[in-house]
Amino acid sequence: MATKLVDLVYWRNMRKTCVVFTGLVVCLVSLFQLSTITVLSHICLGVMCVTFSLRLYYKLLELLRWNPGVHPFQSYLDYDSSLTDKDTVMLVEEVVLLIAFAVTEIKRLLFIDSMIDSIKFVVLLYLLTYVGVLANGLTLIITAVIAIFSLPLLYKKQQVRIRRVVRAVKAFVKKIKNLCLSLYDSVRSSPAPAPAPKPGSIAVAAPKQKAKSK
């Protein structure tokens, strides 16, 4: 499954990737105007129009003795999509581990186990409030689908230029980080100012010095 996804993302099979990418984008855009049930029903109806037409065509060829009675979708019907007991147990274990990891991380962030991580989480939530005002979840999903199918191909074609830009950005971030650390160290190591003497102590010390001079 992972290999098939990588092949789709990197456009190694142009026809299959175009069909999957176009279908995903059209379905997601359709959800802006229609409900999910309507979109799924239309997709199933469209698929069944194609399969039913092909099945009737092959049946007609079989009646005319031009086809030995081969089912056009026999390979799909023979494909075993069932899960064995071992595969089911492994899949359930992976899902449970992912849920447990997510719950643990959220609990750690909400109850301030690490101050830095919780501050990052607060900043992320604050930025997400602005993202939620500008776009809804469906828009973000469409953007994510377009990015998944376009960014790997862009990186593959412009790999040298992108690496050069990333190195420059990393050097700039490292310079800013070192500057902030040096400023923090200089502020931290600067001596504290001596406390100013109180007026009452100065007035008491002056008569004592006069008495000693006499």
TrEMBL record:
GO biological process assignments: brain development; endoplasmic reticulum tubular network formation; neuron differentiation
Membrane-related topology note: Multi-pass membrane protein
Places the protein is found: Endoplasmic reticulum membrane
Cellular component GO terms, alphabetical: endoplasmic reticulum membrane; neuron projection; postsynaptic density
Residue ranges crossing the lipid bilayer per the database entry: 17-34, 134-155
Spans annotated as Disordered: 189-214
Keywords on record: Endoplasmic reticulum, Membrane, Transmembrane, Transmembrane helix
Pfam families: Reticulon
Keyword Zinc: no
Keyword presence, Ribonucleoprotein: no
Matching Gene3D superfamilies: 1.20.5.2480
Every Reticulon domain range: 5-212
Protein name from the UniProt record: Reticulon
Species of origin: Lates calcarifer (Barramundi)
Originating gene: rtn2b
